[in-house]
Design brief:
- The complex is a heterodimer of chains A (113) and B (109).
- With 113 residues, chain A is mostly beta strands.
- Chain A has strands spanning 4-7, 10-13, 19-25, 31-37, 43-50, 53-57, 64-70, 73-78, 87-94, 103-104, 108-112.
- In chain A, strands 2, 4, 5, 6, 9, 10 and 11 form a seven-stranded mixed beta sheet that branches. Chain A has a four-stranded antiparallel beta sheet with strand order 1-3-8-7, with no helix packed on it.
- Chain B contains no helices and eleven strands.
- The radius of gyration of chain B is 13 Å and the shape is globular.
- In chain B, the strands form two sheets. In chain B, strands 2, 4, 5, 9, 10 and 11 form a six-stranded mixed beta sheet that branches.
- With 109 residues, chain B is an all-beta fold.
- The chains are: A mainly beta (113), B mainly beta (109).
- At the A-B interface, strand 5, strand 9 and strand 10 of A face strand 4, strand 5, strand 9 and strand 10 of B.
Amino acid sequence: DTAVSQTPKYLVTQMGNDKSIKCEQNLGHDTMYWYKQDSKKFLKIMFSYNNKELIINETVPNRFSPKSPDKAHLNLHINSLELGDSAVYFCASSPGERAGEQYFGPGTRLTVT
Amino acid sequence: GQSLEQPSEVTAVEGAIVQINCTYQTSGFYGLSWYQQHDGGAPTFLSYNALDGLEETGRFSSFLSRSDSYGYLLLQELQMKDSASYFCANGDSWGKLQFGAGTQVVVTP
């Protein structure tokens, strides 16, 4: 059974396009996250939602907009894609009482050409 | 601010023991986590220390000393499949994790 799933796994698109990445977790966790991992493997948090409410919003261009329709889903929409957006994007979730214990999805490798 | 330091690479032979140290400078520290990531894969949760002391999970153990702002991950009885990157991370109560740059562990026969 898949715990945290993301679609698509790969995304290749041109500069200026708009794209979305979807994430779902079936662990019953209240908190979900989006991370960006660059080519040097540096992982950086972007957003976090707790029970559909935005609780972490790091310094991210406003071209990135997360949406949480319910606590099991957290989607990421990116407008006007730029070359620098190329990275692997990971969704994660955690139980509320152990926020340091996070479970990651398989990742979405985004390539902007 | 928050920053974590860990070695960039460690090489060891199968069956050996490896200790990956992690030092951090932070205010509002809540706990230290460890994650494993194989090339092309996703980070996988290994352990979380909210309190001082040693946590053991099979061949892997993690230690935290809050007074020293220091922790480590101990990998015992190394296997080839343990070749991966290992990240320490600290965070606040909301789960805002700051990750270290990662330690590449290379296991040789």
